[in-house]
Design brief:
about 15% strand, 2 domains, 9 strands, Aminoglycoside 3'-phosphotransferase, Chain: A, domain 2, about 375 residues, 10 helices, two-stranded antiparallel ribbon, Phosphorylase Kinase, domain 1
Length: about 375
């Protein structure tokens, strides 16, 4: 296997923490959670390299003694990032994520990992974290994108469609949960509706992310969204927030979801928040692929197909998906400015004269605002 290119290394470097020091501290912490005499031992820590950029993810195996017998398990620790590493988000509420995973597991058939422990005392690992059981399977990679040659891009069209429909089914099942059960997700911000509060949260996120830079394209996008606001926001659901296939583990040799991951962006809001994000994020990777001269996957996760299947499963009429695609492109644009900030932090880049040049989908977002995007 060839060495990763510098660009890929920049995207996958997530932390300056010492993994061996973390392993020793995690082992000591686990001993405090298990019965006396458990004497746990854990393997060297690893992190997934093909996806994920927000929380720090630590994969480990553990062995211990309990009731006179040898026990073992495979686990994942989700750790709030070190503030010095330029995290993607300004706030990481690990307790909220832990509670949400328990709620989803109890109230739906959405496959989420079983959570085991929540630790909010920073003295344990230097940051809050929770531990969940590890689910084995395969994930469509971000680096290099699954559209550039992967188990998914090389699958048969019928298999790709099975994965697409099953993923849309996850959204329908999630949105069927009574959103009032997850009142702890609500933003305590100005706004008459969940979508207005969601939008205000994005404005504040943008103000934090851009610091003293000017991102004219993102500012124009906020203005466009305000001037084209949906007349009917529809019912409120629990929005996953980061509803893309790179956050799903699928069967080791199949195409059904076995675990849905990464809930940092969850919030109450219209169902279309997740549908728009799902569709746009595929377009994002697909357009990168075709710009590289590769065929991509243009027939996969097409917005009309996603909307039709979702309506058939849920009975909900999908509204203004174009608006939510623009909103997804804006939100992802803000995230990408933070990804670039991290690259600068780890010595893999410097800011260009035009800060909007760090937005990889700049051309798509500009075409959205001018109206030509949907005629492609």
């Amino acid at each position: 296997m060839s060495e990763p290119q510098p660009e890929a290394q920049a995207l996958t470097q997530r932390s300056s923490r010492d993994p061996e020091a973390l392993r020793a501290r995690l082992e000591a912490w686990l001993a405090s959670q298990l019965p006396a005499g458990a004497a746990p031992g854990i393997s060297a820590l690893s992190s997934p390299s093909a996806s994920g950029m927000s929380s720090e993810t630590l994969l480990f195996d553990a062995r211990w003694r309990e009731s006179g017998a040898e026990r073992s398990g495979r686990f994942v620790a989700r750790l709030a990032p070190d503030p010095a590493d330029e995290p993607i988000f300004p706030r990481y509420d690990l307790a909220q994520q832990f509670e949400l995973l328990r709620l989803i597991r109890a109230k739906s058939r959405v496959p989420v990992p079983a959570v085991r422990w929540l630790e909010l005392d920073r003295r344990a690992l230097g940051a809050p974290f929770f531990v969940m059981e590890r689910v084995l399977g395969r994930v469509p990679p971000d680096v290099m994108p699954y559209t550039m040659g992967s188990w998914l891009s090389q699958a048969k069209p019928a298999e790709q469609r099975r994965l697409q429909d099953a993923t849309v089914g996850v959204l329908a099942a999630l949105h069927a949960i009574d959103a009032r059960e997850a009142g702890f997700l609500e933003f305590e911000l100005p706004g008459a509706t969940p979508l207005r509060r969601h939008f205000e949260n994005q404005r504040r996120y943008f103000a934090w992310a851009r610091a003293d830079r000017r991102h004219a394209l993102l500012e124009r996008s906020f203005d466009w969204l305000l001037s084209h606001w949906p007349e009917d926001e529809g019912p409120t659901a629990i929005s996953w927030g980061d509803s893309r296939i790179g956050n799903v583990i699928y069967e080791p040799e199949g195409f059904e979801p076995v675990a849905v991951l990464d809930w940092e962006m969850a919030a109450p809001g219209p169902r279309e928040l997740d549908l728009g994000w799902l569709c746009f994020m595929h377009v994002f990777f697909d357009e990168l692929t075709r710009r590289a001269g590769l065929p991509g996957m243009p027939e996969f996760l097409r917005a009309p197909d996603v909307a039709a299947h979702y309506e058939g499963l849920s009975g909900h009429r999908v509204r203004r998906l174009d608006w939510y695609e623009v909103y997804a492109a804006l939100r992802h644009g803000i995230v990408m400015t933070r990804v670039f900030t991290r690259q600068v932090r780890f010595g893999h880049g410097s800011w260009p004269a035009d800060p909007d040049d760090v937005i990889p989908h700049r051309d798509s977002l500009e075409r959205m605002l001018e109206g030509s995007y949907w005629s492609r």
